[in-house]
Amino acid sequence: MNIKLYSAWYCPFAQRTWIALEMLGLDYTYIEIDPYDKTEHWMEISRGKGQVPVVEFSDGKANRVRVPDSIRSLEFLNDLAAGQFWNNAPTLRADQRYWLDHINGWIVPQFYRFLKAPVGSAQSQESRTALSEGLASLETATVGRGSAIDAKHPGMLDVALFPFAYRMNLLLPYYKSFRPLAHASSLGDWFGEMCRSEDVRATSAQVEYYDDQLLQFYEPYAAGGGQEDVTTIAN
Ligand SMILES: N[C@@H](CCC(=O)N[C@@H](CS)C(=O)NCC(=O)O)C(=O)O
Asked: Which residues cross the membrane (predicted)?
């Protein structure tokens, strides 16, 4: 079995897939790529999407596939390893899916909107409130329940949210003087525990001065630039 992860060290979407590979205990080769450089090779690997992550799989026989997209690759890897990322009960799984859409369609875009908005602007106020409310509803509805956020038994939602929670906690206090994850809260506890996970730490260990490098990478975003499609609200 051969698994390759095409990733970029700074990318939160790719970090989801990377954390999953570690948590599921799969052997893989990490390949660093610049997704913004649309070479013919990269467009072929990414099946025309041009975005990381992409998981490339081959079992050495007839079964091979390239899976672009963070959520689709998480699903694939979880299937491959017969993992426990989804709850087995249909009702709880449906609820997990609901909150996964909430993370992708609301929390993630509001985070980027807030990061990009000029301090003091209407968009800044609006996205800050939307982000805080989005996190609060996730926390109230899911922490401690079988459907969701649980750092002791990480699943789909923990893996999907963590890379963004990490960036929120690092970038927003620095660039926007705002700390969205309160320390004394269930989400704060969840975050602390996820940060201590060996599987999570394995995905930042390769880069020296990781936090400083991330702060530098996101400087253009904090000034209103960077990738645009990440701000699209989907629900
Ligand atoms: N919806 C995609 C988003 C992935 C994404 O936006 N990746 C960024 C890097 S963080 C990328 O590859 N950008 C290159 C581009 O858009 O040209 C996913 O969940 O995997």
From this structure: none
Residue whose entry in the numeric block shows the structure tokens 């975050």: 191
Question: Of all atoms in ligand 1, which is nearest to the CA of residue 17?
Answer: 20
Provide the residue range defining the domain that includes 214: 90-231
Name every residue whose Cβ is closer than 8 Å to that of residue 40 and which is 6 or more positions away in sequence: none
Read off the pLDDT of residues 80-120 as tens digits, 9 standing for 90 and up: 999 999 999 999 899 999 999 999 999 999 999 999 999 99
User: Phi/psi of residue 166, each to 5°?
Assistant: -65, -45
The answer on 118 and 152 residing in a single domain is yes
Query: Checking DSSP bridges between strand 64-68 and strand 54-58, what pairing results, if any?
Result: antiparallel
Strand order in the sheet with 29-32: 29-32, 2-7, 54-58, 64-68
The total number of structural domains that make up the chain: 2
The protein residue with its alpha carbon nearest to ligand 1, atom 2, reads 69
In whole angstroms, give the CA distance from residue 169 to residue 115: 12
Mean pLDDT, residues 17-31 = 98
Ligand 1 pocket by C-beta < 6 Å: which residues? Answer: 8, 11, 13, 35-36, 50-53, 69-71, 227, 230
